[in-house]
Write a structure and sequence with these properties.
This protein is mostly helical. About 75% of the residues lie in helices and about 0% in strands. A hairpin with a 2-residue loop joins strand 1 and strand 2. The chain is globular, with a radius of gyration of 17 Å. The two termini are about 25 Å apart. The model has no long low-confidence stretch (mean pLDDT about 90).
């Protein structure tokens, strides 16, 4: 993350917060499955295969939707070049809005599937050389890097390189708390707020990209 500017790191933390919010809503809606945390769903799939086929099917469906989102986000990013971030996030906002509309129409199952697609796509926002540079929804990797950077700081390395990873984790936790608090009152209608947040983050990404182009001109 040291290769990214402060504004991009701030954007990443904002997206991690959004992911936490959405994942909490999805988790509560699905009764213990995730729309952005596929390690958890992979465990649920394995346990389900051992004797709970319905749960295995739910987990497999969510994993497939997430994977589809990653593919879609990567294709959008390759097609849009330097405008990758705002383009991907605009599509994420549209999918979250569509999911909210589906939930309002009495189709919560399809809504959560589309949310999983959106969360897969959001992870392609930050790519370098075709690889994800900043994982926005899987906090295990962020915690590992946080620990590594703290160890580096204690042994003479960069003193604050760990701070962005702590920010990602805290952002995710904060978003999840907000989502959990909102759930009893608004349920899946909370996805409308997620869509608006994604749209705002898309606009922020567009301004960051434009600023970078102006600086390079």
């Amino acid at each position: 993350m040291l290769r990214y500017r402060k504004r991009e790191i701030t954007l990443a933390i904002g997206l991690s917060t959004l992911a936490g919010y959405v994942d909490a809503i999805g988790f509560l809606s699905l009764g213990g499955f995730f729309v952005s945390f596929m390690s958890g769903n992979s465990t649920r799939l394995a346990v389900g295969v051992a004797g709970m086929p319905v749960e295995a099917l739910i987990a497999a469906r969510l994993i497939g939707c997430f994977l589809l989102g990653v593919i879609l986000g990567s294709l959008i990013g390759r097609a849009t070049g330097s405008r990758r971030q705002p383009a991907v996030l605009a599509v994420v906002a549209a999918m979250l809005a569509a999911a909210a509309a589906m939930a309002g129409a009495g189709l919560p199952e399809y809504a959560t599937m589309l949310v999983a697609v959106a969360m897969g796509a959001v992870n392609t926002t930050f790519e370098r050389d075709g690889e994800v540079a900043i994982g926005l929804t899987y906090m295990t990797g962020s915690l590992v890097k946080l620990g590594q950077r703290i160890a580096g700081a204690l042994t003479g390395g960069p003193k604050v390189a760990w701070v962005p990873y702590l920010g990602l984790w805290l952002g995710f936790i904060g978003g999840a708390v907000i989502g959990a608090l909102a759930w009893p009152f608004i349920g899946l209608a909370g996805l409308w707020f997620a869509a608006l947040a994604a749209l705002g983050l898309s606009a922020a990404a567009w301004m960051i990209a434009r600023s970078a182009r102006d600086a390079d001109a």
